[in-house]
Every structure is written in structure tokens, then in C-alpha cells.
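Structure representation.

___
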Amino acid sequence: MSVETQKETLGFQTEVKQLLHLMIHSLYSNKEIFLRELISNASDAVDKLRFEALSKPELLEGGAELKIRVSFDKDAKTVTLEDNGIGMSREEAITHLGTIAKSGTADFMKHLSGDQKKDSHLIGQFGVGFYSAFIVADKVDVFSRRAGDAASEGVHWSSKGEGEFEVATVEKAERGTRIVLHLKAAEDEFADGWRLRNIIKKYSDHIALPIELPKEVAAAEGEEQPAVEWETVNRASALWTRPRTEVKDEEYQEFYKHIAHDFENPLSWTHNKVEGKLEYTSLLYVPTRAPFDLYQREAPKGLKLYVQRVFVMDQAESFLPLYLRFIKGVVDSNDLSLNVSREILQKDPIIDSMKSALTKRVLDMLEKLAKNEPEQYKGFWKNFGQVMKEGPAEDFANKEKIAGLLRFASTHGDEGEQVVGLADYLARAKDGQDKIYYLTGETYAQVKNSPHLEVFRKKGIEVLLLTDRIDEWLMSYLSDFDGKTFVDVARGDLDLGNLDSEEDKKAAEEVAKSKEGLVERLKTALGDSVAEVRVSHRLTDSPAILAIGEQDLGLQMRQILEASGQKVPDSKPIFEFNPAHPLIEKLDAEQSDERFGDLSHILFDQAALAAGDSLKDPAAYVRRLNKLLVELSV
């Protein structure tokens, strides 16, 4: 046994302690996945070695035949998994096996609910499959040496999965990693060749390098122990290179779990081989759940890139636009050189062609999901909808296609649920309706009860209700769909076009003309608070409302800019009043200029509150309201 030096005991990060508890207590019903996870990690280690060896071929010295070996010892109750991949240095072992990546730490803690069934879904989101070893083992030893390091720089990491782990420097002749699982008393079923073989065939048949198990043979004459021969138990061929007709759904699902380090099946996938001017194969997946770093646009993302089946890059982000950063999968090209780098990828015209085709393929897959599996798509939208809303701004060529995939809440839909597609909206549109109406706001309750919707309720016209913070920004890029223009019902002078009869229009003009005197009085009273005062065509029940100028920023966008410390252009709202409302009739009859001014400002402030805005002078509003209440009580 090698002499251990520089031995030290370190404590697990708090999040790892919680994760270990979660692993052991939440996944006990599917214990065998520990082997799948460890094999996936070993496969990644081999892929990383292949990649680094492209520029440093000396890293392959001592064994260019890359493989994974799984063995067992029934008497010692151990299972050992060994790879000759990239390996780990002492520092990497401490970092990778003792902590969760810093970018995910806070999110992991935040998402833990205490409900083991719910929390178990988090495991795949945080890429922490190594810890699944503790489902079946009460002690785990890891021996590793990084490719290129001296044999004397091996590392031995050991832990019982409790509060701490030990790490020491050891002699290790071969590069790569060997993991020894000391099985719990009740888990010795896994120290069995038949059992391990079945698990590998079930979960890891798709791994594109040999996974070997020992095959006992008779001892040669004079030998005490039988010689050990190794046999490959998986197909060891890249799954994406096989014809679609030969690949079962279960194989696609297991391959996804391997590349995504996820514990759940994917929601959907598409497998395609392109031949002709460009030759490449792609296998793309939509996850069931969003990863924890979905909204960190700078977080690592992208597809696994292979060139002629040789792994080149783990997160090649040049093949899909940023709004599709949640897509997992592989792309294998015959047209790229093996020495490609991220910089070369960004400048290669071949990549632009592939990116365009792969983007269309993903959008087609989502269209199919939305059409054939609406309930599944509802789940997709809940997880990835806000990211998809980045699409129209980033991908002009596919703007119409993306728009068809968007989902919104509406006055027609379920309570607050974003389930209404634009095609469904237009299918329900009124005869003569040539616009798509929408309203943005902070909350569903606010927009649902907004006075801006009163005339639409009266006429039975559906309005989309947009409450995500990204929505107003989205609509600045989404001008039309299927030839119909989008109209913000809170912006400008509302024109319902053919939905208003000639009689309605004529009556509105006559009312506006009869209230010209009141308009002037209100302009004088409200002064610089407003850009304009006019008779409203939107209101049926409320006395007044604030509209936004055609070129002005909406409230939602203003609040986002202000929160980020950016300067917001000055703009003033348009004050609209309902001439048929009793309060407006009383206001019109008011003789006292002072009282008229107070009442006008109260109505203005109430309209601001109804729009979800904050008052610039709340004390003045309270003072005027109290004054009015005193007068009414006298």
C-alpha cells in the first residue's frame, strides 16, 4: 500500500451535508442509479482527456486505449469503478468532491423545501451525481492522479458521508480515477457480477467507450487464483450515430440523463442526421425542469461538440441562440477540424448555417409538443417561458415562429395561468377585429381589475394580461402576429376600429365636444402633472384613468430602469375621464376653483394607484382626501 503524506481532515460545505442527507433518504427507492452517475462522471473524465490531448498528446502516454472498468469483491463487500481519463489533482479533489460550485450554492440552499420528494428533483439540477455513491456505501475512497502529473502526486480522498472527509497525497502509477465503494451491510447485492452487468446494460449501454467487467476463467496449471479477463458489457458506440429506428425511447432517456446529469426523463427530444453540403448529426433534448442557473445568462451553457465522433468541447454555445440555452444535447460534425476553439467557432460560417438549422429544429420540436401534448407544453412554459420571451429580440428571423410558441394570461383564460397562445386568441377574435389587445402590469390582480379593460368587457373583446417583468420589453420587439398589430390598451388614444359602430363614434364625438369646458378646467387644475386631458372611450364604470403616450415608456419598463439605477426619460400621463360617471358630473358642476382643484387631484392620484403607480406626493393626497371627508361629514 502506498505511503500517504500531507494528510488532512476537512469539513464538507454545509450544502453538501444537506445534499448527502437528501441523497440517502430521498432516492432509496432507486439505489442502482449510483452506478449510472459514477459511470457518467468517468465518461466525462475520459472526454476531457481526449479534448486536452488534442493539443497535448503526451497526456495519453501510458495508455491511449480509453475505457472504464467496474469490479467487485464479495468478501470485502466493495464495488470499484476505475477510468483512465483526465483524473484530479489534490486541489481539484477537494474542490469537486467537498463543495458544490459557488454559483449554485445560494440557489441550492434557497430551493431546499424540507419535503424530500420535492427536494430530490434538485439533485439533477445541481450536477452532484457523485454523492449518490453514499446511497449504497457507508464509506467511499477515491484514488486519482491528473494526466500529466507525476506518479508521486496522486491523491486519496476518503469519507463516510457525514461531516468531513480526509485527503492525502499518495503514489499512483496510472493517470485517472479509481473509486472504491464500501457497501453498507444491506447493500451487498451490488457486489455481484450479474447485478452490475444488468445495471450497466440498463442505464449505460449508450456510453461511447468500453465499460468492462471481469470474467472469471479457470486457473492455469500451477496458479492458485484464476486469471482475470475483462469483457466489454455495453455497446460502446455513440448513440447519436445509430439510426433512429434502432434506438428505443428508454435509451434516448438514459443518454439524456448521462449528458445532462439529470435524474428525470427529458420532456422531448429530436434526433436528426443532415447530409449534403453540410454533414452533421444532432440529438437535442428539452429538459423537464429548469436548471438552477437558467436566468444567469453568463452561466456555462451549450451542446456537447464532437468532430467525427471525437469529443472536442463540453459546452459549445455557438450552435444555439441564448434564449434556447436550456437545450441539452450533442452535435457531431464532419465539416469542422479537430483543433477548433471557441474563438474559431464564433467566426466559422459553417457554424452560422448549423446554428440556423438547429434553432429551427428546436422550435419545430416545441411546436409539435405544444400541438400534440398541450399539458406537457404547459409544464414547459411554466419552467422556460420567461427565457423564450427573450427570443423575438434575439432572433428576428424566427420571430413569428417564436411568437406562436408564447403563452399569456388573458381575460378569457384561467385565473392567472399563462396558457393562451396567439393563434387561439385570434381564433376567438371578434368579427372585424384586426388587432391583438394587451395590458401590462405588476400583478395579475392589478391588470385583471384595471379600469383600462372596462370597454373590452362591455364589448366581449379578449385582452392579453402581461405581468412578467420582461413583458413590456418583449412587446417593444413584437409588433405583429399573423398580420395583426399588437395594441397596448393603456397607451395612446384607444381606437377599436371596426369594433366601434358609426353610431358609437358619432356619439363619442358629440360627448367630447360638449365637455370641452371641463377639459380646459381640468388642464388648468392639474397643470404640469399631465401631458393632456381628454374624454375617455375606455371607461364604463370608473371616473378616471391614466393613459400612456404613444412614445413614452410604460410603468413596468420605468420601474425596471429606476430599480437598476438608470436615468428614466421624463414623461407625463394622459388624464382621461368618464363623462357619465356621477363623480365627474359633480366635478363639472363644482363652482369653487379650490374645491375643483382638490377633487381633480384626488381623481388623478386614484387613477395613478389603479394603474399600479406610486404617488409622487402621498401626503398631499391624504390631506385632500381628509379635507373632503370632513366636508362631507358636516
Remarks:
- The chain has four domains: 5-237, 240-381, 407-497, 502-633.
- Residues 5-237 form a domain with the Heat Shock Protein 90 fold (CATH 3.30.565.10).
